[in-house]
Write a structure and sequence with these properties.
Helix 5 runs antiparallel to helix 6 and helix 6 crosses helix 9. A hairpin with a 4-residue loop joins strand 10 and strand 11. By secondary structure, this protein is of the alpha/beta class. The longest helix has 22 residues. Helix content is 35%, strand content 21%. The protein has a single domain, classed as Ribonuclease Z/Hydroxyacylglutathione hydrolase-like (Metallo-beta-lactamase, Chain A). The termini are far apart. Bound molecules: zinc ion (ZN).
């Protein structure tokens, strides 16, 4: 029974997030006219429990995904009938992610990593549930006299979206902020990400709910930006020394470990070294492309 009443963090009046699931930090805003959801739990058993907790706050009206990575969207399936919102580039990315989120390989892994979820997985009642209402640069939603602003802040991923709740001074950033856990730069344009952090810093915000890690505030943004700068710096050095992409990946990992001081979050530790390689390969391509233009 204790597992059912999982703790949930109240970050402001009517604004909640869960930071202990395996996967991202899903959140929601409880309004006088139902619930506005931000992202969904990755594990099926967490998603159905989350759904029951949220339904205590009223009907589930909207769901917005901050980004297309499976740990933010796989749980959408367990919220049939909820209107899903997303930046326009989310639609194709959601479709591309479906093979990574379904099928027998994922099921076989789940049998050992999360047996409680198996009976809910690939369940006929829970088909994929992609965004159907899209926007380009921003979308304003009014729910129960609560204004919510969805803002396109490309960085960690191209469709990356922040959700601003001005009356509560809260911003959900998704993975544009990794609070004190390892930053995934595996597909980001690092310069776009720095611009997104500047735009986030310009908002009137008291509390930031990051994609992973504890809620924080704007003071952390400069640390997050420094990690991105460090990635650019170390890869620019490889390029300056004339190393190819493969040679850059083969450089000693101690150098890379100084780039980002934080441990990898939420059960992702088996990916730590492969993530370094993916980060280097991605940043390398962006550094070379930028130098070709300059
Ligand atoms: Zn992500």
């Amino acid at each position: 029974m204790g597992a059912y009443r999982r703790p949930m963090r109240r970050v402001a009046e009517g604004v909640y997030a869960e930071i202990y699931f395996w996967g991202c930090n899903p959140g929601f805003v409880s309004t006088g006219d139902g619930v506005f959801m931000i992202d969904t739990p990755q594990q099926p058993i967490d998603a159905v429990r989350w759904r029951e907790r949220l339904q205590e706050h009223g009907p589930l009206r909207y769901l917005v995904n901050t980004e297309p990575h499976p740990d933010h969207i796989r749980g959408n399936a367990y919220f049939p009938g909820v209107e899903v919102l997303g930046q326009e580039r989310m639609v194709a990315r959601y479709a591309d992610a479906i093979p990574m989120m379904t099928g027998t390989t994922v099921l076989d892994t789940m049998k050992t990593t999360d047996p409680d979820s198996v009976w809910l997985f690939n369940h006929p009642d829970y088909p994929p549930n992609p965004p159907t209402r899209t926007f380009s640069s921003s979308l304003d939603v009014e729910l129960g006299n609560q204004a919510l602003h969805l803002i396109h802040h490309p960085g960690h991923t191209p469709p990356q979206t922040s959700i601003y709740v001005p009356s509560r001074g809260v911003l959900f950033t998704g993975d544009n902020v990794f609070y004190k856990c390892k930053t995934f730069v595996q597909e980001a344009d690092p310069w776009e990400w720095l611009a997104a952090l500047d735009a986030i810093g310009a908002l009137d915000v008291e509390t930031i709910v990051p994609g992973h890690g504890e809620p924080c505030d704007k003071r952390y943004l400069s640390q997050q930006a420094q990690i991105i700068q460090n990635w650019i710096g170390v890869v620019e050095d490889y390029v300056r020394r004339g190393l190819s992409e493969d040679e850059a990946v083969a450089e000693p990992l101690e150098v890379v470990r100084n780039v980002d001081p934080w441990p990898i979050g939420q059960r992702l530790f088996p990916m730590s070294d492969s993530l370094n390689e993916r980060n280097i390969r991605n940043v390398y391509k962006h550094v070379v492309a930028r130098q070709a233009v300059a």
